[in-house]
Design the sequence.
């Protein structure tokens, strides 16, 4: 221990009181690092924050440490670079690769949306402009410095850190950070006890301060098997002769769905319906699974099953022809919360017909179209127009890349002694509050719900 260690400050610049925009600034008297640099999504008041310059001195930021490649954790990196950051971005190798796919897609979507909004005249901003472009992503990627898990990395005299697998998506890692003789653990997004494609999360034994995500802090995932839940929805759509559209995150969820659906077909639990994967990003990420074999738990046979009989659609022109072919089919398309991407084009054509089914399989943040569908909205605004929702909307709760309340408590169970403080972040307020109560009641540990913009001295 360092005698009289100087104070360390934690400041949550996003991912507090919400599940998006994750950014945690850790500061000593001389240095600072940023854990994650995510994009805000969902409610407009959150999305507007994406345009604001971060309240930090870009010259004094020594490093960014990235837990994983989801947009809400990495999506603001090009903005950071645009605003002058040129230091290292530390990540695991698969996270670097996933991040590149995600950021390029995000830049493309923003450029396309701005173009369409200007052409269609439905933007309130004149002219509408993207937050960043692929050129900004080109400037961001060379800053990446990759490290294996369990490898200690010394950043400077104040900070050293180590990645530990977190069981959430390909490459995802929690961060153990040692600073001024104190150990901090940032969970990033924490996977379930028994993830479908990953090893379970690394079990941390001790830490002085824990920053724990709380996306599902107030919920238990369905006990049902995802195979059964999925088969039921596929068979229902088949009987109606409709199309099943599954809006999906490109990373992890799309691969899980491919594996589950192809296994069900193989077992003859569902009919051999044509299966389309229409998310260019999902296709690229699926390739990454085949490259980074140390980072998932699939056998070669399962990898092969995952990709069997999948019609992969790279080209937007082909997307428009998928629905020309008659008969029931399954389409997996991005984005997962229906905030953008190809899924919008399918919904424009399919929402109005009750034969079709929209299946929601992941977290739907407030303010997203996915959340509106989930809560039974009877119309949906897409590309400036309103569409009536007559298609059946279903959701299944057994697929999640996040641990539920029981998983989060199970992970904490492995600490040999109480941390000095647990901070809960990455959750809607009621979810964080439910988890705070549960930890306080069962363990008696001090728990604080992280507030956006507040500095905590530890
Ligand atoms: Zn995530």
Sequence:
């Amino acid at each position: 221990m360092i005698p009289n260690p100087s104070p360390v400050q934690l400041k949550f610049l996003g991912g507090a009181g919400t599940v998006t925009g994750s950014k945690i600034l850790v500061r000593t008297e001389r240095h600072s690092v940023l854990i994650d640099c995510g994009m805000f999504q969902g409610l407009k008041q959150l999305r507007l924050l994406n345009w604001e310059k971060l309240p930090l001195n870009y010259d004094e930021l020594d490093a960014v440490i990235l837990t994983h490649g989801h947009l809400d954790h990495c999506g603001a990196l090009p903005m950071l670079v645009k605003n002058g950051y040129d230091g290292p971005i530390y990540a695991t190798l698969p996270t670097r690769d996933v991040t590149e796919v995600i950021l390029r897609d995000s830049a493309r979507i923003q450029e396309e949306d701005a173009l369409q909004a200007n052409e269609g005249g439905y933007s309130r901003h004149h002219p509408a402009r993207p937050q960043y472009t692929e050129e900004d992503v080109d400037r961001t990627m060379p800053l990446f410095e990759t490290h294996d898990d369990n490898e200690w990395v010394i950043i400077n005299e104040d900070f050293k850190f180590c990645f530990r697998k977190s069981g959430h998506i390909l490459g995802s890692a929690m961060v153990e950070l040692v600073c001024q003789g104190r150990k901090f653990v940032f969970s990033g997004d924490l996977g379930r006890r028994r993830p479908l494609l990953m090893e379970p999360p690394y079990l941390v034994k001790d830490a002085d301060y824990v920053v724990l995500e709380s996306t599902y802090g107030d919920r238990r995932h369905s006990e049902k098997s995802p195979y059964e839940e999925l088969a039921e929805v596929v068979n229902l759509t088949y009987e109606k002769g409709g199309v099943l559209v599954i809006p999906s995150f490109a990373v992890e969820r799309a691969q899980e769905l491919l594996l589950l659906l192809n296994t069900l077909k193989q077992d003859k639990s569902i009919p051999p319906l044509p299966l389309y994967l229409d998310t260019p990003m999902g296709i690229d990420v699926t390739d990454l699974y085949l490259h980074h074999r140390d980072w998932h738990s699939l056998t070669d046979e399962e990898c092969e099953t995952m990709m069997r009989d999948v019609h992969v659609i790279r080209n937007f022109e082909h997307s428009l022809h998928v629905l020309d072919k008659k008969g029931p089919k399954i389409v997996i398309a991005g984005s997962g919360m229906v905030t953008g991407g190809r899924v919008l084009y399918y919904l424009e054509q399919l929402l109005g017909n009750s034969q079709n089914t929209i299946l929601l399989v992941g977290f739907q943040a407030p303010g997203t179209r996915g959340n509106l569908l989930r809560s039974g909205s009877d119309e949906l605004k897409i590309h400036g127009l309103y569409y009536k929702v007559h298609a059946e909307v279903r959701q299944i709760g057994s697929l999640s890349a996040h641990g539920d309340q029981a998983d989060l408590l199970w992970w904490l169970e492995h600490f040999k002694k109480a941390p000095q403080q647990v901070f809960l972040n990455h959750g809607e307020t009621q979810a964080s509050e439910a988890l705070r109560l549960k930890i306080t009641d069962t363990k008696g540990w001090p728990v604080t719900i992280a507030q956006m913009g507040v500095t905590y001295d530890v």
Q: What stands out?
A: The first helix runs from residue 44 to 47. The chain is about 30% helix and 20% strand.
